[in-house]
């Protein structure tokens, strides 16, 4: 055992720090604990030890790529059952990680976003049409559900030229329910090691998981089949991978199985997180009238009443700050793992042997005292350039860190700013004043039950 750390007060033999553990809210519970136990602490649950780091100094050390690398904590490692050595769930030493990274990186540069812009505008138009109907019928709408439709449609059409027909459905495509079921199953199972005699108790949820997994595989097969049948020309992510696979000289060619894992990875990683980010940003916009008006004034000035051109999206500096600040308070990927490359000491005296790992608790890092005296308050001006410069490095990590940081960062930002700008340009938003923010954890974070009444702007 490598040094002791503060832990919750009521530790029980065998079960560990089980008092007060709610399998539905591990991140929010750990964030509260971070406030009490300090920058590094541990939780032991059924014999499994989780070390959490949330202080600006220790996280700064964990982000040093020379000393630490991405680590797959149990909740992410379990996802290899779905994603295998796809980009998100690959170990850094697996050859397919480097290959896929090198092959797909050019499709995610800031300039490459130009190629996705028109599709993103088209999908935003689908949302507008849907909300215009809601406005006319005076019917409120569930924000997370609509944002999930929008982001799944966007990654489907941009990455794979595949439409899920999301806006023609009352609920998001069944792909989403199967994905959420599979993500939460793996996350909750990572907290439990079930002894053989207790396995029958879990047979039903195991069966449901098998069904969900099969459904995801069916969607994946349909994406590939649709492409193989088509005679059109494509230049999307799928085509990049398929062309490389046919090119014997391409060192980054991926196998058919691995292409499948990449498709699932992008369909999941490419929509769920951005949907949450948009939903939280809309929550704050709808509940902060001054912020809303300032953001709208910027859209009116920069975009006017027309459709946004590609170059006009990054000019919405204030809207971008609203997004950044929403991702500060609710980083939709709330934690990531870091493993020591060699024996080392972090913080004052916490020893880690090579291979030991810690979870960076981004939710708590983003409310560290470096964020000022009222870190829980929503204030987009936290992202004014002067304030950014005045803070230490590595205190804002919604997109992870180092070489395994999010490949889709520019994509998510372009899409989210474009959609927020479009909504501000067209609609007034009325939130239910009695709604208190409730956050659902399903590996990512998402507002639960947040509804708005959109009204076409007078
Ligand atoms: C990795 C966050 C949007 C694709 C990551 C990681 C984070 C993250 C924190 C690193 C995880 C770790 O260290 O274990 C987010 C957030 C998003 C977002 C907050 C939206 C607001 C996207 C989009 C795509 C995407 C739009 C694709 C179009 C990926 C992939 C990886 C990744 C493939 C794995 C990269 C690698 O390991 O090489 N993301 N992401 N993400 N993200 Fe995102």
Automatic annotation (TrEMBL):
Pfam families: p450 (PF00067). PROSITE patterns: CYTOCHROME_P450 (PS00086). It comes from the Bacteria. Coiled coil: none annotated. Keywords: Heme, Iron, Metal-binding, Monooxygenase, Oxidoreductase. CDD domains: CYP120A1 (cd11068). InterPro entries: Cyt_P450, Cyt_P450_CS, Cyt_P450_E_grp-I, Cyt_P450_sf, Cytochrome_P450_Monoox. Signal peptide: none annotated. The keyword Transport does not apply. The keyword Nucleotidyltransferase does not apply. Transmembrane segments: none annotated. Belongs to the cytochrome P450 family. This is Cytochrome P450.
């Amino acid at each position: 055992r490598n040094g002791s750390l503060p832990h919750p007060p009521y530790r029980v033999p065998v079960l560990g720090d089980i008092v007060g553990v709610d399998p539905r809210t591990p991140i929010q519970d750990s964030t509260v604990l971070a406030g009490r136990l300090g920058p590094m602490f541990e939780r032991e649950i059924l014999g499994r030890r989780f070390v959490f780091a949330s202080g600006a100094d220790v996280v700064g050390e964990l982000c040093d790529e020379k000393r630490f690398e991405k680590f797959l904590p149990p909740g992410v490692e379990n996802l290899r059952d779905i994603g295998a050595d796809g980009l998100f769930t690959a170990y850094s030493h697996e050859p397919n990680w480097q290959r896929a990274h090198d092959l797909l990186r050019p499709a995610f540069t800031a300039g490459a976003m130009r190629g996705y812009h028109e599709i993103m505008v088209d999908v935003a138009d689908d949302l507008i049409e849907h909300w215009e109907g809601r406005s006319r019928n005076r019917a409120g709408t569930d924000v997370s559900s609509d944002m999930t439709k929008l982001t799944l449609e966007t990654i489907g059409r941009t990455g794979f030229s595949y439409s899920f027909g999301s806006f023609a459905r009352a609920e998001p495509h069944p792909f989403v329910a199967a994905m959420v079921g599979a993500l939460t199953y793996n996350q909750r199972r990572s907290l439990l090691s079930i002894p053989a005699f207790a396995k029958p108790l879990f047979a039903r949820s195991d069966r449901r998981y098998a069904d969900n997994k099969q459904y995801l595989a069916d969607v994946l097969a349909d994406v590939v089949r649709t492409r193989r049948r088509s005679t059109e020309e494509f230049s999307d992510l799928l085509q990049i991978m398929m062309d490389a696979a046919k090119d014997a000289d391409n060192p980054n060619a991926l196998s058919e199985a691995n292409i499948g894992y990449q498709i699932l990875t992008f369909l999941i990683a490419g929509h769920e997180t951005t949907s949450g980010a948009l939903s939280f940003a809309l929550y704050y916009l709808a509940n902060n009238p001054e912020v809303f008006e300032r953001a709208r004034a910027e859209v009116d000035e920069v975009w006017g009443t027309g459709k946004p051109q590609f170059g006009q999206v990054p000019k919405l500096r204030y809207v971008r700050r609203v997004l950044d600040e929403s991702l500060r308070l609710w980083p939709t990927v709330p934690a990531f793992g870091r493993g020591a490359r060699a024996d080392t000491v972090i913080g004052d005296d916490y020893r880690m042997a090579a291979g030991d790992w810690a979870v960076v608790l981004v939710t708590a890092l983003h409310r560290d005292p470096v964020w000022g005296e009222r870190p829980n308050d929503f204030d987009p001006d936290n992202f004014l350039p002067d304030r950014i410069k005045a803070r230490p490095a590595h205190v804002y990590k919604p997109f992870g860190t180092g070489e395994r940081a999010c490949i889709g960062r520019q994509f998510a930002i372009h899409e989210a700013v474009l959609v927020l700008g479009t909504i501000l340009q067209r609609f007034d938003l009325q939130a239910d004043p009695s709604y208190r923010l409730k956050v659902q954890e399903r590996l990512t974070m998402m507002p639960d039950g947040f509804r708005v009444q959109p009204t076409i702007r007078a």
